[in-house]
Amino acid sequence: MAMNPFKPTAGKMPPILIGRQPIIDDFSEALDNGVGAPGRIMLVTGQRGFGKTVMLTEFRRIAKSHGWETIGETASEGLVTRLLQALSPTTGMRLNQADISPSIGIAGVATASIGQAHFSVAANPLTLRNALNKRLASRKIAKGKGILITIDETQAATHEDLVAIATAIQHVIADGDENNTPEADRKGVAIVFAGLPYMVNELLDNKVTTFLRRALRRELDDVPTPDVKNAFMETVVESGKAIDERVALTAAVKSGGYPYMVQLIGYYMWQSAQRRGSTTITIADVDTGMADALLAFDDAVCAPALDGTTSAERLFLDAMAQDSPAPTQVSDIAARTRRSRSWVSKYRSILIKDRLIRASGHGRLTFAVPHLGEYLKSIRQDSSF
User: Which region is the signal sequence (predicted)?
Assistant: First the structure.
């Protein structure tokens, strides 16, 4: 039985990482270029459904192929403690407590905590810094290799955990600079943070994580329509079905270049043809796939995208939604909301910063998240009944 090649499940590796090769190259080249290469400390941002988790999975795959050890974590309470346990899995130590030392001075990073986790059999507390150094010193990591840490959903991390991680990584890099090991033999550490766009602004505005300003910043954006079309054609053909260029282009345009929508449309149009017992995907299959994809997209992307928005931000977005999918004139928002120009300017800046909307020509705005405007209109219609 033929298997659907499209993988819209969150974090599942798709058949083709379309439009992401430059970022992949940045990371892979950083591993080859040694300690200090910019891509060894990276911030990857993008809205939900843009493939951040997939990128982290790919980075870990690349690191393993280079002979590196990898640790993949998702930000939540106890992040530093879990990293410590991952770095020291065979010590037999039992965790008694995790606490934060509030007044450790770090040059260039201001006064910060370093996240100490106390173990019952340790004479001295095990810190993330010395756990990393101890692991790097082990024979299990070959010369010139190292440890990659990836942290997903970074916007959910606590301030204390981010400080602990940031200061530990900075110290480990500095510790390596102090020995006389040849550059080619030095073991290193790489870390990639991934999260929503506003995460970058909060991280870089935080004085205790100023070293992250030197991180390589990469934002995942829409994939160009021609690349999506080609990916549809290649993936469908490799799965044993057929799709002509016109049909693939229609599906690509409907996806808006949004990676998660690409996977959803691909999955459901392929499944529509499969249910008909056909080896050829048609325009009718694309239409069926789009209808099913929108239902899944609303639940997985549009609804969460609005989480955390204020009533004022929702008022602004609702005013824009009246024109969706067409752009909105900024002057119309002031009239519809009955707010001042300064109010409109304020929330325009906030929503652009959070990547919910974007400029679309002089004096016009459009939604940065596909289908978000239509989703807002459907909510208003449902609530009016």
Answer: none
